[in-house]
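Exercise 7. Given the encoded structure of a 98-residue chain, write a plausible sequence.
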């Protein structure tokens, strides 16, 4: 079998995230790309990672479980509440970008 690799996957990812209105993701490389592209981001993180590997921008929010520090314990309601708070503060906007 042949293995095929794209030559521009990072560029494609950056272009897609640049057009996005909001990224909701786990703590991974795309949150850093989204921040570089100016895309608001809500990401699920473990508390200990917030000390050293989080994006620094105001439009990138971390959501974590305060009790057991388990990503699986973050509820949909908590995530939607955080997105609504981002909207309320004007960080995320669900309108078409030019």
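Solution.
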């Amino acid at each position: 079998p042949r293995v095929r690799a794209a030559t521009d996957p990072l560029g494609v990812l950056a272009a897609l995230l640049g057009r996005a209105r909001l990224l909701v993701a786990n703590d991974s490389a795309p949150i850093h790309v989204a921040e570089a592209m100016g895309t608001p981001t809500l990401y699920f993180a473990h508390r200990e990672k917030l000390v050293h590997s989080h994006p620094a921008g105001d439009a990138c929010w971390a959501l974590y479980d305060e009790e057991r520090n388990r990503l699986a314990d973050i509820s949909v309601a908590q995530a939607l509440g955080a997105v609504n708070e981002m909207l309320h503060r004007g960080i995320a906007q669900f309108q078409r970008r030019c």
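Remark. The chain has three helices and three strands. Students should compare their own answers with the one above.
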